[in-house]
Amino acid sequence: MALHIHNRKQPTEPIPTDVVDALRATYFATRYPSQSQHDAAQAFLKRLRAARLWIACDCPGEDQPPALMAPREPEHAEIHLFQFGQVQHAASCDFARAIERGSQHDATRLQGPLDEPWTIRPFIGAGGLLNARLDQILRAALTRSGIGRIQAADLERGERPGCYVQSGATPAQRVGDAIRHVEIDDHQVYEQAGLHHLRSIAKFAHTEAVRRLARTTGGYVGLAIGMVDEVVPAESGKPSGLVLGGRQGDRFVVYLEQPVTGAETSPKGPYWAAVALCRKETDTALRVLTASVLPALDRLTGIPLTSGAHRAPVRMLLEQAIFWKTWASTQCSVALEFPLYDGVSADAVISTPNGRMVEAYFDVDEPVTRAPGSWGDLPEPVYLKGKPPAKARLQLSAAVAKAVNVNTA
Ligand SMILES: [Zn+2]
């Protein structure tokens, strides 16, 4: 296992051993790091962040792409190391564990891939911590399913304008397949004690598995992950809920004991939801404790978003990705990724077949001053905030054309 600097194209120089040791001690050790190690790790991450560089870990093997890590500096929190991307570290790698340190400054938004088991029992009765845990599980499940990563080759325009369809399994199937074998509470895997179809909550409550588990010490604790159409915010005296709409316009509402979190101000979905379920031996029915949700673009693609306001720019990018398949200056199928964790990379990352990336920011102001040539032959990021759509599309196309046609020799 060796760590290298990654310049957003490829690994470059090795990271010195004392810095690797400081990173390991600061973010991955079970004991607290020495002050000098903590300071060295933070100073290193600040330099990386200023230079827009990442870290590559070669533990997946020589013929595999590296596992990526990057400095992340959310608002109101200290800079810390963050694992991201589709490639997982080897199980034996020192950097494979979920990052614990750093989250002490950012308790409501725990970061990065999540170690198994995805337990919720310890968080029951802990107020908002249960919602924070569900948010963490939901992001981990969606990231693991790869549903926020779209291949233009699989993407077509739908029947209605602004609708897009992907070939292959449905979003719900992809998420279900990705988490089926994940261990959740009480040594159960999701397939055994989890629930994918929220509509079947009533039926599920009476399954033999739930009855049997409810009789064991502490009762049954389970998890439901799926897509819902709307949320019902809690109002005076009325509970919060999740709404599933049927094809015939019927509505099925799952009421929650504690208010849903993550829905911002708009009740309109769709949303991805992670729901905590519980049934003690003394409970007459299955209890739906609470839920955490994340906006989804729509039911057809299921692309999860960090904000409902991202629906419009994401649709623009899907339209552009289809356009770039045949446009003379690009003629390629890009991959689009919409990262689910703030503050590590852009809101959208467009990868071209020759391994280049164009980053797009949706909500950040374009920097006023920029060092000329600081991006070298890397395409500069595109800032969409406040731009008329026509101008935004032109800038995106120019950046992708530059990325596709750069001399890679
Ligand atoms: Zn590794």
Could you tell me which ligands this complex binds, including any ions or cofactors? Answer: zinc ion
* Overall pLDDT metric: 85
Low-confidence stretches at least 5 residues in length (pLDDT < 50)? 101-110
- In total, the number of strands is 18
Provide the structure class.
alpha+beta
The proportion of residues in beta strands is: 15-25%
Specify the overall morphology. Answer: globular
How much helix, percentage-wise, in residues? 25-40%
- How many alpha or pi helices? 9
Series of H and E elements: EEHHEEEHEEEHHEHHEEEEEHEEEEH
CATH fold name of the largest domain = OB fold (Dihydrolipoamide Acetyltransferase, E2P)
- Amino-to-carboxy terminus distance: 28 Å
Radius of gyration: 22 Å
CATH class of the largest domain: Mainly Beta
Tally of structural domains: 3
What is the makeup of the main sheet?
Answer: 6 strands, mixed
CATH architecture of the largest domain: Beta Barrel
Question: If you had to describe this structure to a student in words, what would you say it looks like?
Answer:
The protein is an alpha+beta fold. It folds into 3 domains: 3-113, no CATH class; 169-295, OB fold (Dihydrolipoamide Acetyltransferase, E2P) (Beta Barrel); 308-405, 3-Layer(aba) Sandwich (Trna Endonuclease, Chain: A, domain 1), CATH 3.40.1350. It is built from 9 helices and 18 strands. It has helices spanning 17-27, 35-50, 128-145, 171-179, 190-193, 201-204, 208-215, 311-326, 389-405, and strands at 3-6, 11-14, 54-57, 67-72, 80-84, 149-151, 155-157, 164-166, 194-195, 220-232, 241-245, 251-255, 268-279, 287-295, 335-337, 348-351, 357-361, 382-383. Strands 9, 10, 11, 12, 13 and 14 form a 6-stranded mixed beta sheet that branches. A 5-stranded antiparallel beta sheet has the order 2-1-3-4-5. Strand 11 (241-245) and strand 12 form a beta hairpin. The chain is globular, with a radius of gyration of 22 Å. Residues 101-110 have low confidence and may be disordered. Zinc ion is lined by residues 1, 57, 59, 67, 89-90, 93, 95-96.
